[in-house]
Amino acid sequence: MASGQFAVVYRQIGRLFQSGSVTGLSEGQLLDRFVARRDDDAFEAIVARHGPMVLGVCRAVLHDPHDVEDAFQATFLVLVKKADALRDRDLLGNWLYGVAHRVARRARNDAARRRVRESSGPKPADRSRDDSDVLDVRPMIHEEVNRLPESYRVAVVLCYLEGRTHEEAARELGWPIGTVKGRLARAKDLLRDRLARRGLAVPAGALVVSLAREGQAVVGPTLLHATTTAATSVVTASALAVSPHVLALVQGVLQVMSTAKLKLAAILVVAGFLSASGVSAYQEGLPASNPGGPAVVKTDVAKATVAPAESSQAEARLKLAEEAYAIIRDSRRSGGMGEPDLKWPQRLKAAKAEFEEEKKKAEGPAYVYNTAVRDLAKAREIETRLLLLKQANSDKVGSVQPPELPLDLLDAQYRRIEAEERLARLNKAPREPQ
Description:
The chain is mainly alpha-helical.
């Protein structure tokens, strides 16, 4: 073991002289460096930075140490395959968490099938009931963490699994510290409630301790080196350093991710995002409901160009008020809040009015049309998000639809139709006199 550690150290020292240190680079910079130059140092730094979290997730879901190491390697090899397509590279930990959980679950299913095939042989000794119960709880916790809304899960991954302070997480996410704390508190409430539905009474403090402990897993130099070597072999298309089981995990997860993208595209088509006739109609000033009719000319307006400094303060206040109002609304739905707090709804109303007034002044004649475009985009976004949530819940065995989801979805669809009709009316408006 000692000789292996020294070999890794000597290799790292030699490569530092060749390509320079990667210390201090952001996640996006490391990934860009790996994508552009296939820099092993950058990739090894990514594995070292996020490896403890990934290893902790794999250990929570899997029992066999060999399966854990295979899932660990497969997670980072999926990153190698998808590195070019990642958009939000500075939130790599959140993305890796989702991949690690998906890979580990697939590895667990493979292990179950393997045990069924081998069931004709002698049965292994049963674990004690207490040990089995403890091991069964952890996969459930991670299933529910993985199901959290993205804005909550990213805070949980950063603060609980990767050990960031609230201040560090706020800087990385670009959120106020209060938003980080509020979303963490809401995430704990959601996790506790969802686990309770599954018959698990887990205190919030125990959840945090369990996740933090898994985020402190130690990635040994041998596993670190093996994973980096496997990544290099995948990049060079040799795959000599990758076991068949790891390759099968990678291919299986990539296939599932591609299928998920196809489902998303289908949902977007239903929501109207990818409707070629609708998009073309709005771009050309035609009503979407009559693409083959006579051409009509929309009001001659230009897209507004507002400098960020002109509305930054008003927009910041609006975002804070919206976040506070969302927390209040969610708490009421879950029964966690007594008397209504009228301060934040009033602040939200005032912040919206102030922000709209600034946009109106900045955009001038374009404000009415641009507002219609923004309202339609927002309505479609909300509808698509709710459709995705409904689809995700329906795909999971034993999942329970939130009671408010059907009405929220109907409301979103109603608002989207209203926004489409409003924009179509504006497109039909005659050209203003020059």
